[in-house]
Specification:
Layout (H helix, E strand, L loop, with lengths): L7 E7 L12 E6 L4 E6 L2 H7 L3 H11 L13 E4 L15 E6 L6 E6 L3 H7 L4 E5 L6 E6 L4 E6 L8 H12 L3 H5 L1 E5 L2 H5 L5 E7 L4 E7 L4 H7 L2 E7 L13 H18 L6 H4 L4 H7 L21 H7 L19 E6 L9 E5 L3 H8 L7 H14 L3 H16 L18 H13 L2 H6 L3 H12 L3 H7 L2 E2 L2 E2 L9 H8 L13 H6 L6 H21 L4 H4 L16 H15 L5 H21 L20 H6 L1 H12 L8 H27 L9 H7 L4 H8 L3
Parallel strand pairs: 2-7, 8-13
Antiparallel strand pairs: 1-9, 2-3, 4-5, 4-7, 5-6, 8-9, 10-11, 10-13, 11-12, 14-15, 16-17
Helix pairs in contact: 1-2, 2-24, 8-23, 12-13, 12-14, 13-15, 19-21, 19-27, 21-24, 21-27, 26-27
Length: 715
Amino acid sequence: MSEKATLHILAEFPYSVPTIERGYAGQTLYVNVGERAIQARPVTEEMKLKFTGGRGFDLWLLWHGVKDNTRWNDPENEITISSGPCAGITQYPGSGKSIAATISPLTNVVIDSNVGGHFGPYLKFAGWDAIEVQGKAARDVIVYVDGVAGQVTLYEAPADAPTDTHLLGHWLMDQFAATEEDRQLMSFVTAGSGAEHTLMGCLNFSLYDRKRKALRYKQAGRGGIGTVLRDKKIKALVVHAPPFGGDMNHPADLKRIQAAGADIHQEVREFDPVQNRMRNRGTPYLVKIMDDYDLLPVHNFQFGRHPDTPKIKGEVWEARLTQGLPDGCWYGCTVGCAHAVDGFVVRTGPYQGQTVIVDGPEYETVAGVGSNCGIFDPEAILEINFYCDTYGIDTISFGTAMAFAMECYEAGVLNAERTGGLELRFGNADAALEVLHQMARGEGFGQIFGMGIRRMKQYFIEHFGADPHFVWDIGMEAKGLEYSEYLTKESLAQQGGYGLTNKGPQHDEAWLIFMDMVNNELPTFEDKAEALHYFPMWRTWFGLCGFCKLPWNDVVHPKNKLTPQPQKIMHHVENYRQLFIGVTGREISYDDIITMSERVYNFQRVFNIRLGYGLREHDAIPYRSAGPVTVEEYESRADRYDRQLREWLGLDPETMTIHEKMAAHRRYRMERYEKLIDAVYKRRGWTERGVPTPEKLHELGIDYPDVIAVVQRHL
């Protein structure tokens, strides 16, 4: 236990903790760490009606906080965090999510990232529907929201306070939690030394694990939000919630909520053990499934399966994870997939020899830093996972960027001289870890790597003479954000699900691979466009309300297969509709759910356009996500590709060279992607350049003058 420090107060703001009514506290918290200003701002009925909460509130606050030319490291850039009206429900699994947003260092547009843990619900229980943090402090600061005392305090952090999350969390507990009850009612948002020196910093949201009597963390990983936090010299955001019960949201109809909860809890208990075993192994259950269907990223997305995959499949992690069941990141979650490994002894870096808890690993981490980098050693994956978390580095961006760097090394773009002696070959976990440590120190090749794939590509071209076509083809990023971990070559719909996102290629908007590739349920462009309308809007809604998507589609009653639209899992959609009505008292239909999301989704598209991006040219994807870049890739699936030439194009591959065959595939596949863009834009009510029309914005009720002014410039 560390000694309690004397913290210097920079600013104080007393407030009356409001009673939450129907899911809303009715106010948001504004903190400017540079000007040392703290304010309460009202939540209007317009905000609730048009933007709902969560990601919607984040975008609304951010829109009014920044300028057209604001960049990620400008003082006026903000970090906004909101959980939504339904967050904090304890009667339905997966109801503790919140969303963080900012202008991204990687993409230069708005990034939103969903996260579990206790901070979002606790912030609301402390009296705030959202927090927006602006400005830059001269020295490290801590924002402390005390929902028991009714006080927001801005402290100067002592110079000797740790930065890396696993140490900082203990230090913060010692400073602010006087009792065991305080520890249970406290949550932090932190980053780490890696976030200070790279553009792919993540936020760590803490939860106090009552069973372990220890801190654990969930990550808002995508897009460099942790980098923005450390650029603002924010050491931590801390919230202390008052004691709470299952009716803390003061819902309109608690019995309606309880009925929906009883239904899903029974499904989880009955069907999870025979379906995905989320309660036992979490999201790594996906590893074997992806490998079976040639969808697991291997060696920088070149291949979709590997003979060593059994070394990192779900059963391996189930045996390694240490927890009682369920192990959730919010109270009442019977899915309980937030597993961890206790007693892990760190073998490298500054914390060598320490015994720590490693949260996860999630599927995205196993596939990203594991198979995609050719690393099939569970201990190495856990080591990378731990250091990414404590340093504040997104495991998805790290894994995808490392796979890119490794392929560049194998292809001769990089060599030991250019990497400072590191042999970045596929499978070299020690070299990958050394890059990770360099990133935290801001040294060596880690400085170049920490810029992310888009900037690495340009650097390799300018400084190492790399072939621009090659690095742009194999660098798996879009809009500047590294791809999440699914192979999309044979799913045009999923290519659109990555390329046509607002934030960049993240699977939380649309995961259509099985509908499209495996089950062939989307045969036409119009079918794909409809799926790329419905599913991104439906998934957006989770982030407006405070829900996790996993209880929607990872545990499903077998009777769902007999319904007219099994992929939508309408029985669960009805549950969520009932939950929203039960909390807010606002009657909504299925169509209303999609419209609620459309408002926020279109608003975010316009926001990107306002910042200088968000047009058709920014929806381009690297060719590897559509087809084979190298001869080795083609030959690994030669039978499939040759058959496609015959069936799709009427060509005879026997008369063609390998390069002719690859060129024919490229022309056809990229033409299909452009046709998909046309179909999706039409379905979404956008112009051919990808701009929401004034008519669409009027239909959605967000035709505000400043919003219309943005789109008018591009019509």
